[in-house]
Write a structure and sequence with these properties.
Elements (H helix, E strand, L loop, with lengths): L1 E5 L7 E4 L9 E11 L1 H7 L10 E2 L4 E4 L5 E4 L2 E3 L19 E2 L11 E5 L4 E2 L6 H4 L5 H10 L6 E5 L3 H12 L3 E6 L4 H9 L4 E4 L8 E6 L6 H8 E9 L12 H4 L4 E4 L5 H10 L9 E5 L3 H10 L5 E5 L12
Parallel strand pairs: 11-12, 11-14, 12-13, 14-15, 15-16, 17-18
Antiparallel strand pairs: 1-2, 1-4, 3-5, 3-9, 3-18, 5-6, 6-10, 7-8
Helix pairs in contact: 3-4
């Protein structure tokens, strides 16, 4: 099969012919129909997150088909031990022995992959492969972050990329008022946010027109944390939704006082996936997608890094040579 390999952090991905993966007991062999491109992939490629397995096939927003024709989604969470204090209390996302797709386990920047069947998710028929792929991380992490905002009505979204463009639609569906914040001068992203129902869209270095009840930070820029805090009404919450963020600068206690809070989101649970994928057709979530061939995976990451994407990027690997129809 063909796969895009990360051989060392900081180096471009190399597309190569590699042996087909062989499923172990409890694993599914999947033909990859689509794989979303996530900022976590970019952090791994750029060496901002540790990569314990090299070479590794990136990609953890996988839509694949089994040998008997079933369609499943493969998210970031690929394995947990099932018996630690976190797993037994509904917090498998914090399992100390967790393994993650596209980091510890080869992912979906490939024509074939294998995945633990217990961590695969059923996908709604209403969504095609390309449309469903971004939901499997950007959507799931964004949904978990949204839950952490409670019943906040005035919701700020800092960074309007893949995750935010999906969660904006969910928030509007729930009756919230969305305030979108982008890089200064990014008129296109601000217009995109308004198209999806945001009542306000402006630069992140300016305050909103009214205080926020909560804010979700999707961008990896630590300086947005104090900015979001200052935008909150008393009792509001800032949720940091990324796996990596630059250092947060110092800020005065007065910005946090009056029961404001900062919290993070780590990974996801299978329950998060089941809830969002059941909700997605009802909203309905419409993902805006740019597709890339497998050979252009490095370009997809470059476009994400440069902020050139509208919505999400998705890699479509194509059928493995000599296997057309074999897995369908």
């Amino acid at each position: 099969m063909r796969a895009a390999l990360l051989e060392r952090p900081g180096a471009p991905l190399r597309v190569a012919d590699v042996p087909d993966p062989q499923p172990a007991e409890g694993q599914l062999l999947l033909e990859v129909g689509a794989c979303g491109v996530c900022r976590t992939d970019l952090h791994l490629r750029d060496g901002e997150i540790e990569t314990p397995k090299l070479p590794v096939v990136l990609g953890h927003q996988i839509v694949g088909r089994t040998e008997d024709g079933r369609r499943v989604g493969v998210p970031w969470l690929g394995y947990t031990d099932g018996d630690c204090a976190y797993c037994t209390s509904g917090r498998e996302n914090l399992c100390p022995n967790a393994r993650f797709t596209g980091r510890d386990i080869d992912g979906g920047y490939a024509q074939l992959t294998v995945a633990d069947e217990r961590y695969c998710l059923a996908l709604p028929d209403e969504l095609g492969d390309v449309e469903a792929a971004p939901l499997l991380c950007g959507g799931l992490i964004g949904y978990r972050a949204l839950r952490f905002t409670g019943d906040a009505v005035r919701l700020g979204l800092y960074g309007f990329g893949s995750a935010a463009h999906m969660i904006c639609q969910v928030a509007v569906h729930q009756g919230r008022r969305v305030f979108a914040f982008t890089r200064a001068g990014d008129a296109a992203a601000q217009a995109f946010a308004r198209e999806l129902g945001a009542v306000y869209a402006g630069p992140s270095d300016e305050p909103p027109p009214e205080p926020l009840d909560a804010a979700i930070i999707f961008a990896s820029a630590g300086e947005l944390v104090p900015a979001a805090l200052r935008a909150l009404a008393p009792g509001g919450t800032v949720v940091c939704a990324g796996i990596h963020m630059s250092d947060i600068p110092a800020f005065p206690y007065a910005d946090l006082w009056r029961e404001r809070q900062i919290r993070s989101v780590a990974n996801l649970t299978r329950r998060d996936g089941e809830e969002l994928l059941a909700l997605a057709p009802r909203v309905p979530i419409r993902t805006t997608v740019t597709t890339y061939a497998l050979e252009h995976a490095e370009q997809a990451l470059a476009d994400l890094r440069a902020g050139r994407l509208r919505g999400s990027a998705v890699i479509v690997p194509g059928e493995p040579r000599g296997r057309a129809g074999e897995l369908r």
